[in-house]
């Protein structure tokens, strides 16, 4: 029931969702609150990154061999602290840690996989960055966690979402009942429902890919790109920010496909299945879109290790299926190498 104002805070929305779906959201809305608390701390530091010496390198590299920016470490620590202090979570897999952080003393039933600060290479140039998270329920009911608990296919997610630290700070998430977007109102410190029931527009008008890698793309990807440039009745717009959360968010609002294909040099591409592809694919599917590795729904892949990478195509469902048709036609012999 709505009274005078149509302003709905995240807290009010969660309570309404608990009433509408008592079987689902109540169990992990606490985790959502914990994530949002950490995101507020991250947002505060991101917003002043240019002002204090939090930029620059720690001189360390993460398990990906990437230069680690202080904000990466800060974000990871904020998320870890909030999640384990909330006592709903028994394990966290982070892009910033070689292996899972597990609390075998915890009564928590949930496992969180996250990229605490995706797009961190954009920090120094003040381009939008984000936090991406997936929430899974442990499969075993007690005792030490097993691989079955920790590495689950994406379609086992119970929730997924992202924070976007852009011109405004947004939270977009799903618990399997659609996708909703909330914008932080700094004047009152609340996330307000600004994008209810988000859906991809009917038409795909934008493609997002780093064409600097074109020469190394497989034939199916090249043929798809030739097709949309040569044959489409109305030209597509090319938009590429180099920050997955920002590129995905724009495509969700305006219609588009984001691609990080495999290449002859890196057949599995760059993006991680567990920290980036699966959460974004769950959100996309709930918004009428689709996420693929070129051959299959990425959420059908059984992960074999925490940091595994995958080629990634996500956005308007028909557009992603179009890419799959080109991959099927031109790259089917590569399947074993790319996704095997
Ligand atoms: P490239 C950021 O480092 C990231 O992981 C994603 O956010 C982004 O989509 C991609 O890498 C950009 O990679 O090779 O185009 O710079």
Distinct bound molecules:
6-O-phosphono-alpha-D-fructofuranose
Category by helix and strand content: alpha+beta
The coarse overall form would be globular
Number of strands: 15
Radius of gyration: 20 Å
CATH topology of the largest domain: Fructose-1,6-Bisphosphatase, Chain A, domain 1
Arithmetic mean of pLDDT: 91
Give the tally of structural domains: 2
The CATH architecture category of the largest domain equals 2-Layer Sandwich
Q: H/E order of the elements?
A: HHEEHEEEEHEEEEEHEHEHEEHH
Output the CATH homologous superfamily of the largest domain.
Fructose-1,6-Bisphosphatase, subunit A, domain 1
Helix content: 25-40%
How much of the residues is beta strand, in percent?
15-25%
Low-confidence stretches: none
Largest sheet: 8 strands, mixed
Gap between N and C termini, in Å? Answer: 51 Å
What is the topology, as strand order, of the major beta sheet? 4-3-5-6-7-8-9-10
Total helices: the number is 9
CATH class of the largest domain equals Alpha Beta
Explain what the structure shows:
By secondary structure, the protein is an alpha+beta fold. The protein has 2 domains: 4-195, Fructose-1,6-Bisphosphatase, subunit A, domain 1 (Fructose-1,6-Bisphosphatase, Chain A, domain 1); 206-339, D-Maltodextrin-Binding Protein, domain 2 (3-Layer(aba) Sandwich). The chain is 32% helix and 23% strand. It contains 9 helices and 15 strands. The strands form 3 sheets. It has an 8-stranded mixed beta sheet with strand order 4-3-5-6-7-8-9-10, sandwiched between helices. The N and C termini lie far apart (51 Å). It binds 6-O-phosphono-alpha-D-fructofuranose. The site of 6-O-phosphono-alpha-D-fructofuranose has 8 residues, from loops.
């Amino acid at each position: 029931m709505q009274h005078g104002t149509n302003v709905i805070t995240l807290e009010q929305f969660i309570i309404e969702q608990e009433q509408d779906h008592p079987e689902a959201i109540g169990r992990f809305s606490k985790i959502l609150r914990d994530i949002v608390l950490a995101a507020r701390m991250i947002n505060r530091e991101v917003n002043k990154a240019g002002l204090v010496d939090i930029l620059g390198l720690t001189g360390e590299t993460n398990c990906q061999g990437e230069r680690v920016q202080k904000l990466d470490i800060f974000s990871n620590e904020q998320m870890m602290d909030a999640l384990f202090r909330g006592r709903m979570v028994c394990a966290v897999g982070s892009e910033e840690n070689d292996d899972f952080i597990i609390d075998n003393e915890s009564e928590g039933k949930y496992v969180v996989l996250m990229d605490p600060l995706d797009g961190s290479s954009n920090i120094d140039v003040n381009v939008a960055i984000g936090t991406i998270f997936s929430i899974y329920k442990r499969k075993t009911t007690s005792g030490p966690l097993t691989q079955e608990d920790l590495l689950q296919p994406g379609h086992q997610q119970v929730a997924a979402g992202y924070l976007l630290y852009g011109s405004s700070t947004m939270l977009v998430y799903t618990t399997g009942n659609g996708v909703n977007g909330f914008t932080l109102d700094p004047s009152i410190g609340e996330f307000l429902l600004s994008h209810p029931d988000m859906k991809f527009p009917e038409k795909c008008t934008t493609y997002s890919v780093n064409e600097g890698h074109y020469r190394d793309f497989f034939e199916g990807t090249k043929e798809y790109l030739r097709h949309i440039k040569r044959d489409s009745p109305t030209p597509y717009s090319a938009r590429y920010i180099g920050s997955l959360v920002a590129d995905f968010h724009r495509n969700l609002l305006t219609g588009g496909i984001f691609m990080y294909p495999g290449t002859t040099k890196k057949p599995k591409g760059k993006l991680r299945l567990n920290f980036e592809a699966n959460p974004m694919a769950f959100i996309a599917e709930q918004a009428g879109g689709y996420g693929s590795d070129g051959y299959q729904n990425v959420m059908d892949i059984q992960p074999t290790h925490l940091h595994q990478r995958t080629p990634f195509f996500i956005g308007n469902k028909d557009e992603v299926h179009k890419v799959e048709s080109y991959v099927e036609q031109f790259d089917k012999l590569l399947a074993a190498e790319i996704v095997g």
